Structure formats: C-alpha cells, structure tokens
Amino acid sequence: MDNFTLKLQASDKRPLYEQLYRHIITELEAGRLRPGEKLPSKRAVCVHLKISQSTVETAYGMLSAEGYIYARPKSGYYVSNIPVRPARSHPLPPAPAKSETPLPRFDFSTGAVDTGVFPYASWARLSREAISNPQLLQRGEAQGDLGFRQALAAFLREYRGVRCQADQIVVGAGLEYLLNVLAQVLPWESVYALEDPGYRAAWQVLRSHGRQVRMIPLDNSGLRADKLRESGANVAFVTPSHQFPLGITMPAGRRAQLLAWSEEVENRFLVEDDYDSEFRYATRPIPAMQGLDGGDKVIYIGTFSRSIAPSIRAAYLVFPRRLLAAYQERMGFAASTLSRFEQQTLRAFLERGLYSRHLRRSANLYRKKQQLLLEELSQLPGAEIAGAQAGLHFLLTLPGKDEAWLVARAAAAGAPVRGLSEYCRDCIPPKSTVVLGFAGLKLEEIPQAAAALRDAFS
Amino acid sequence: MDNFTLKLQASDKRPLYEQLYRHIITELEAGRLRPGEKLPSKRAVCVHLKISQSTVETAYGMLSAEGYIYARPKSGYYVSNIPVRPARSHPLPPAPAKSETPLPRFDFSTGAVDTGVFPYASWARLSREAISNPQLLQRGEAQGDLGFRQALAAFLREYRGVRCQADQIVVGAGLEYLLNVLAQVLPWESVYALEDPGYRAAWQVLRSHGRQVRMIPLDNSGLRADKLRESGANVAFVTPSHQFPLGITMPAGRRAQLLAWSEEVENRFLVEDDYDSEFRYATRPIPAMQGLDGGDKVIYIGTFSRSIAPSIRAAYLVFPRRLLAAYQERMGFAASTLSRFEQQTLRAFLERGLYSRHLRRSANLYRKKQQLLLEELSQLPGAEIAGAQAGLHFLLTLPGKDEAWLVARAAAAGAPVRGLSEYCRDCIPPKSTVVLGFAGLKLEEIPQAAAALRDAFS
User: Fold this and answer.
1) Chain B residues with CB inside 8 Å of A71's CB?
2) Residue B449 sits in a domain of what CATH number?
3) CA–CA dist A406, A412 (Å, integer)
4) A251 neighbourhood in chain B, CB within 8 Å
5) Distance (Å) from the C-alpha of residue B203 to the closest C-alpha of chain A?
6) What is the ipTM of this complex?
7) Within a 10 A sphere around the Cβ of B268, how many other Cβ atoms?
8) Contact at 8 Å (CB) between A241 and A160?
9) Residue A238 belongs to a domain with what CATH number?
10) Distance from A458 to chain B by nearest Cα, in Å?
C-alpha cells in the first residue's frame, strides 16, 4: 500500500478515477510497481483513499483494458509483464505568439463580400428546415446530394448557359478543394497551363500535388493561345468571364482558338473558372465557354463563396461525361466535403428563386458601389481604370508612380491594397498598378475610403 | 434583315435577349453573317421582331462584350473579323441510369448513427445564432476559427488526454480531406504503413496521391511492431482505441513499442485515428496515445461524424508542433473547408457542455443497443463475438460457415452485412466472420433485425 500515497486533490479538475489511473501508470513507469506484483484490492484502495468502490473499479478497468494490469479470478489484479516507457517529462508546448496585425480602416481586399445583403432571415429559415430532416444526418452521396445537384444544373443551364446534367456535377467545400479533386482525377503526368498573372491558389494546389505547371502570359484577349501551344501543356486554366486579376472578358475569337486547341488532341482540356461571373455591370452576364463546347473538353468550376459569402464553402465542378469514370475510380469513395444541411439549404435557396433574387440585389448594390468608387477615384490625376465591366474588383493604374510606393502608402493610410505584381510569377506587370476590391466596403464609407486612397497616392 | 427570320418563342423558357443573342451567334457560325457586315439597327430589330429596345440593347451589348460584333460611333454595329467555330450539333448528354438498389430492411452498416438522439432543437438554436453573426460571412482562418480550435483543444485535453493547443489543430471537412492534407504536408517520399485489415479510405487517399503504402498485419494487440520495422515505412497509421474493423484495444505494451519505434528516427511518425473512441462500454474511454507521447511524434485525428452525425463533416487533425511550418508552407494558403456557421455551432455546442451531454446520451443508447443485439445473437449456435468493448460495430464469427454465404444470406434477408475480408488487402482473414454495425438500428427493431440474421445464418 506504500505505493498509494497518492493524495487525490479536489483542486485537480480531472475526475478521481482518472487521477488514480494516471497515478498507477506513473508508478509503473517509474518502476515502483513491477511485473507480477499484486495490486492492493479494490476495497483496500477505497478505504485507504476514501473514495468509492466504483471509482477504483473504473480505474482498474481502464488499466486492465489497456493491458497494464490483469485480473486473476478470485485473487485480484497483478502488474503485467509489458515493456513500460520510462517516465517522461511532459512540458506543455509554448503558447503561440499572438498576431498583432491591426484591422484596416477600409477593406479593399478582393475576397470580401457585403454582409448587409446576406439573406439572414431566409437562410436561417431554410437551415432550420434542413436541420429538422433526420435523413440528412446520414452519410450522403460522394458527389453531393442528387437534389442539390439537380437544382444546380438547372440554375447553371439557365443563368450561365452551362450544358450539363446532375450526374456530371461534383460539389465540394471550396474551389481549392475541387482543384485538389481535379488534380487527382486527371492523369498525374498532365501538364497544367495557368494564367500569368492569375489566381495564386491554383498554382499552390497543383504544386502541392507535385504537378507540372507552365505559366502562360496574357494579352488583351486573355490567355495567349500561341504561348499555350508552345508550352506543351495539355490542361489550361482560364477565367474567361472576368480574368483574375486583370478583369479581361475573353472575346469570342480567343474562346474559339482555345476550344480549337483543346479539340486537336484527345487528352487536352480547358478548365473554366467562372468565379465571379454573376456580377456584370454594363451587359448581362456572358454565357460560359462550357456551353460553346460540344460538352467533352471544358471542365467548368464555380462557387457560392463570391455570390453569397466566403464562409459558404459550396463550390461545384462540372465534369465532361468522359471524365466521370476516372472520377468514380479515383475519388468516388470519399464522402462529400460539404455539409448536407448546407447542401439542402442551398438547394431550397435555388429552387425557390431566392438565389436569383439575392443575385439581383447584390449586383445592384455592387454596381452602385463600383460607380461611386470610380467617380471618387476619377478625381485622382492620371488615374486609369481597367477590368471594371464585371466582378468585384478592378485595376487602378497611376502612371509614373511606383507600385511598392502605392502599396506602402495605402497600407499606412489604413486602406491596404495589393500590387498587381503579387499575382505574377514569370510575368512583368505594369509598374504602377494596384488591385482594388470594393465588395467589402460599405456604400456609405466609399467617399472616405476613396479620399484615403487619394490622399495616400497624391 | 433576312437574317432575322428568327421567331422568338414564348414557349422557349430563355429570356428574349438570350434567344436573340444565341440566334445571332448561330448565324455567325453558319457563315450567314460575315466579317465586316453591318447588323440591322437596334430600332429596326425592335420593330421587326416586336420586342423592346432594351432587349436588343442587351443582346448587342453581350455580343459586343464578347467581341462577336463591334460598334462604330454614329454608324452602328458590325460583325468582327474573328475565327468563328463551325456550327456544332449540341446533343444533350444522355440521362444517367437510375440506380435501383432497394433500401435494406435493417441497417447493419458501420457508418450510420441513431438519428433519434441528434439534438435537433439545440443544434437549430445554435445554428441560428451563428447565422445571425455577420462576421462569420467573411473568409475565416485556414486552420479553422481560433475560438472553435480553442474549444476543441480544451475538449480533447479533458476527454481524450490529448496534449495540444489551438495552434496545432487544423479542422476540415471530413477525415478523408484531412488525410489529403496530411499526405501533402509530410514529405512526398514518405512511406506509409497501414493496418491490414483496416480503414479502406486511408489506402485510397494515399494511393490517389501516388504515395508508397505498406500493408502491415495485426496480432491480438493490433499493428505488429516487428512487421512495421521490417516494412521500411516511416509513417504508421493506427486505431489504438478500437481498431477498425477488428475492434482491438491496443494494450499499453504495444503502444510503448510503437512510440519507441517512432522515436528512433527523426522522420518517423504515428498517425492516431481516434475515430470512435467516444463510445466505450465496459470502462471509461481510454486516453489517446498522443498524450503518452512527448508531443512530437503522434499526429492525432478525430471526427464528429461518428459522435454527432455523418453529415456533420467536421474533423480535426492535431499536428506535432514541428510539422506546423511544413503545414503553413504547403497548405496554409487554402481557406478552411468547413463552413464557419458549422464551426461556430460546434464551438457553442462544446463550450456550453451540450456535446458532453450528447455523448453521454448517445453512449447510453448505444450500450443498450449493443447489449440487446449481443443477447439476441447469443442464441445463434456457436456464435463468437469480438471487438465489442467499444465503438459502434463488432465482429460476429460463425465457425464452419463460409463468409460469402453469410453475406449473401444476410443480403437476401434484407439485412446486408460486410464480410471481414472486404477490409483486407494482403491479409487472409478468418473465413467465417462478418462486421455488424448497430448504431443505425432502432432499439425497438433490434429483436427483429437479430431474428432476421439468425434465420439467415441457420
């Protein structure tokens, strides 16, 4: 009983059985309890430590289940002959350093949305309906629930001119995740062409999979078809509706050239990232390139993260039917990464017309914001604007000013912006251009936000 | 105007501007409108087709934005000189075949949960609170929101003996997704050891990443340390709390051996998959192996999919601090795959003690189900049960019966079960063993479900 000098401490937050359990393990590790040695009877421990019999039973039961001790019928518990690890000190790991980045006064980031336009009431109502459906608790389909995919296919056909059926759609938690899926579905020896400047996460995902990547320069029509051909790549990523970050709308001629390129060789594909096509100001949204294709060369991807909110992780990928077998074989085992509650909420949002209403409201609001911001910035001498016909960001160029200076001045004014060069890998961008997102600015703060930039850049 | 013999059809669901837009593209593709040719004026089209001027403006605007046509000031619109694609027929892809698998009468699958115990009311209330928080609409932290990770770290410390802090945790949408992350964070040349029989998705994820995998046989204590050593692998996956599918609780001796193995060489790691450790019947849950470690050799993963519901995608990975830099570099750019609403709902569920209450209620229910099912099956002559001390499934062996026969008979009786051999890759399993999950069976239907199996197996 000498080994049980343990004092059970009321101040210790752990339950008594766990204190006892851990104490005995410590004794084993320290060699103070040796193999074959008999442990004190449960009753003796109760009396000695003034604890209940069930507490001792729990601790002995755990030790026995883990093989530290074993029971001999009508005799008691004995220490097993097992290699024990020497006692180790367990220093708590150091606390992480706190990040001290101050919040900016004005949000010119390209990833934000206006939280004022989010349909809180209808979203909450549809979520509650979803949560009350017990069927949605079980594991769903790998590609996403059929009803959600059907609603999505109907929406994409009507609003984006995408020709697809539900069985071609895979929904998942975010564009980056779907790029992950894509990198695994296409043969590993594929060579990927990316727009330069372009969307950085695509490069990162492909590189983290060890895939071969070629950076392709752009001209005024978007990805250069001649350079694509020279690169030897067989999968080309494009953002034809609103190139990220330059804002170019790819003209029909270039679309035709790229589609023709894809059709020349069996294993060539275009990946059309339609990330913010919902918002177009001068004209109606331009139909997706996927709809121009015969249906077997364009892989179409889109997301609700820009059109509803970044925290809504739902994104979708439309496979040409010829890639479905490879998807099934390589990724068909994984459960969907998207919550079924969120899938059902989005499905109802689409089916009841709430999503198209939300898009109209959002587009009107973003149009107003963009116009106001452009007016305010037009007072900046020499300012040139590009890429403003669509989307939630545009480019501001101030000839003669240095990009690094613009970025530093904006940050100092509490209105941080990104320089265009951040999106370049091999390309040499214009020297005096920054990227301005406006969705995260409140309409009423735009005059002050623009004034802050004007002051900073003067 | 001959080219505009288009009849706009009210029966066509597409808006009028889109019908006009598509008609003109068809004319271009067919060569009936040629480069340089002047288009009819907007006004002429309005009158001819009896549609509003804004409809024509919209269609012309889209065509112009895409470069099909261009405007000359004070003159009108002209067809651009662009390569047009020949007109293609666009057959709608064939409809997918409908799957006709009948629903089983009794659900013995290992992935189901009891939907009756789901806390609908409190989940709906916490979700509504989350949805009404505008901050949660913006993009969150890549690893998951700090508050959620802090609540999770506290829970894991208290309930699972896991020693970690919030900065070591990455939350994501499902175990498979986190295995994806892990495969990208560890060096690509790592060699992975998997339990055989074991969790099939781990093999699939690693193979889809092209990683080297070694299958390691088990003995009564779980993964064989000698075979692990021989395999040359440097990352070993284990399920020490309740081996999947055998149900073995790894004894302390084997844990010590595996930890010692991991410590011999710098780049060796253990991945502890604690997938259903919350449910333990004979004793309290046994603390995780991660807590025995000094904190730098065990990568701990767990999920809410078993403890709450499969459709709740939240899973978590606890990195040793020495792997955090590699995580940041290779995966730190990606937004979390988990909805922030769901993160916040789970955070509140943890912080307000609702999760531990839910676990107690669930464990009591599952204990009852398991006891009842075991009692009912004990009437089967010769039946042997294994792995029933924890988790939501166990093994049933009927010596002398053939596994394929058992599986076929159960399926015919509307109570499909899996044979143990389905979980083997290289191993040769016992010939007469099936895996029975019981969480998805209602308590009151267990007598009938067991009777169906008894009849089928007699």
Assistant:
1) none
2) 3.90.1150.10
3) 10
4) 66-68, 80, 82
5) 11
6) 0.77
7) 17
8) no
9) 3.40.640.10
10) 31
